[in-house]
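Posting for a labmate who doesn't have an account.
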Amino acid sequence: MEPVSFSPLSRVAVCGGTHGNEMSGVYIVKEMQKQKVEKIGSVAITTVLSNPRALDACTRYQETDLNRCFTDDLLSSPITDSTPYELRRAHELNAQLGPKGSEEAMDMIIDLHNTTANMGLSLIFYSLDWITLHICKYMQSKTSTPVRAIQLDMPISEAYSLDSVGKHGFSIEVGAQPNGVLRADIFNMMKEAVDLTIEWLQEFNSGRTFEGGEVEAYIWAKSIDYPRDPVTGEITSAIHPQLQDNDFELLRSGDPIFLSFSGETVKHEGDDLYPFFVNECAYYEKKIAFHLARKTKVTFPSVAVKKD
């Protein structure tokens, strides 16, 4: 692949509390604000507590999920008296950190999230962004913690999360951690990922060429709902013990996925795929028991900063 050059990545936003009960990112951002971290080397840093009302209430959101409010359609929708608080907040964040798709947008947005699923450390992004893939590879080379790349394959105009507002961006997702709880090991895992990202950006801006390579990536394929009562819509099963806490372990046809409340096992049917966000607490309302992904190797080119 031909080498690719980019303008310096000197304006970065680190965001926590997009979901107000995911505490690792909240306290990383608060600590950065307390320490007045506004510039590290060549990188100017903007810290943001994204959803103050949800943070004050220690809830995921107040009226609607803020991390689903950043599509082009929603960001261009008029604000009225009936507009939910989080959509108003999305417009404010787009004005502060974007506008999405513009030259004025932040060079990179890092949005910090926790999951109740046993996913360890994951980077979640949209299109195959060479910068994000290089950062993922860099993290993998610098930490003993497994670092997984998850791609949501959709146009950036339909990308719904805060990180999509930047020229480059990704979510750092770390778990398992209960909502409203702060665990030191999970905090440290996320903090190291933030520090390594900023370290990579400084080296990139200084003129270092990062050689091309490859990473394994999990490409979202589909979502699976819980079995439900056809009349009431209530769930009739829980995640099977053999699937619980086994995110990113290959799920084969015939493997158990649910255990009904009457003791019957429901088995996976179809292609062999990789589950993630297994039994995520916040996804019950979204009617998602877990996602399934294909695993592939993604090749990326060498990158360097553009020369004047």
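Reply:
Got it, the structure tokens are right above this. Residues 126 and 152 are 5 Å apart (CA to CA).
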